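[step 3/7] inverse_fold.run input=structure_tokens len=341
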């Protein structure tokens, strides 16, 4: 990659960039929120969440003060809820130690909760116009093809080398356009699934994989571990037209609300026996169906039952359906069950 190639790329970006909401601001708070949302989520899905989130929490002070319940409701459906919890932690730290302003120093940014090298680079280059690159999966893919890099892209040495290369180039360009030009190219031209649009690519002259017609072979990824399958039974207890939910206090999805469940798949007879053992008195059990939810590293295979109670069972919250939907953060895994009740 030479100066001229980067020049082509940045010009291509300036001419072809998508009109995205976070590209209309230089407010570091807004750019930070967008970059955290974009890390594990598609641009199209992020657009809506970004607008609603910033309407509810327009400043870092609002984020620092929001209740966990309200915050996770705003995040409902986006997944990877630790991102939201870290956003609030970080906002509290910004209010406590940084007068409510994201610092424009790489070391200080990296010391904050939830801010890693990618996010620090994105905030610095896009919001503060500092010459610090940001390397996400899009950028890794572009560079692995340009260099026909045989190494595993999860290898941290590779990222370090790419960062050093980009640090040299970024000094000569507007940092915001430089960073986003690589991300944009990876998102719309040098795509991960399907055929990359090499004929439209501003880097086609320097791309080794393209020259050898081997763009499909890159990036090289080590075989992923298969996802662990967890079987579950989900109990939707109904009492006087309200349904049982409880707050997940730790682990995966902590802070969100779930239907009571156990890590074992039960048939209706098993459920009856189990509930009798638990001292639960019920008048009816209805099988709601089988549900599957795929997380990045595991799959839940669930049997769900609606159980009409004669008296409330355990100290769950009993809440009307509309209120659950309005006020409680129900992760996608349980959303499908909620929709079917
Ligand atoms: N993905 C990560 N950061 C992005 C940005 N600023 N624009 C579009 N997609 C992105």
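[step 3/7] decode complete -> sequence:
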């Amino acid at each position: 990659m030479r100066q001229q190639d980067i020049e082509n790329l940045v010009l291509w970006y300036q001419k072809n960039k998508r009109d995205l909401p976070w590209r209309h601001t230089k407010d570091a708070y807004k750019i930070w929120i967008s970059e955290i949302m974009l890390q594990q989520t598609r641009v199209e899905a992020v657009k809506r969440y970004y607008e609603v989130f910033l309407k509810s929490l327009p400043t870092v002070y609002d984020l620092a003060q929001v209740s966990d319940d309200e915050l996770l409701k705003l995040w409902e459906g986006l997944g990877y809820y630790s991102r939201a919890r870290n956003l609030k932690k970080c906002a509290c730290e910004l209010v406590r130690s940084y007068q409510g302003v994201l610092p424009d120093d790489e070391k200080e940014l990296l010391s904050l909760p939830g801010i890693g090298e990618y996010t620090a680079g994105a905030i610095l280059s896009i919001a503060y116009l500092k010459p610090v690159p940001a390397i996400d999966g899009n950028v890794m893919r572009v560079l692995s093809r340009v260099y026909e890099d045989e190494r595993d892209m999860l290898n941290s040495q590779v990222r370090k080398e790419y960062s050093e290369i980009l640090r040299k180039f970024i000094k000569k360009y507007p940092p915001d356009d430089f960073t986003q030009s690589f991300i944009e190219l990876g998102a719309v031209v040098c795509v991960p699934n399907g055929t990359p649009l090499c004929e439209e690519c501003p880097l086609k002259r320097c791309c080794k994989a393209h020259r050898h017609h081997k763009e499909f072979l890159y990036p090289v990824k080590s075989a992923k571990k298969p996802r662990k399958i967890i079987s579950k039974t989900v109990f939707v207890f109904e009492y006087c037209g309200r349904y049982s939910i409880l707050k997940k206090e730790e682990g995966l999805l902590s802070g969100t609300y779930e239907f009571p469940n156990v890590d074992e798949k039960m048939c209706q007879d098993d459920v009856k026996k189990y509930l009798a053992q638990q001292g639960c008195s019920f008048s009816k059990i209805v099988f709601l169906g089988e549900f599957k939810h795929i997380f990045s590293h595991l799959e839940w295979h669930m049997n769900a039952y609606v159980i009409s109670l004669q008296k409330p069972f355990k100290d769950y919250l009993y809440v009307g359906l509309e209120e659950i939907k309005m006020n409680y953060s129900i992760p996608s895994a349980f959303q499908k069950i909620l929709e079917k009740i």
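[step 4/7] annotate
DSSP finds 15 helices and seven strands in the chain.
The radius of gyration is 24 Å.
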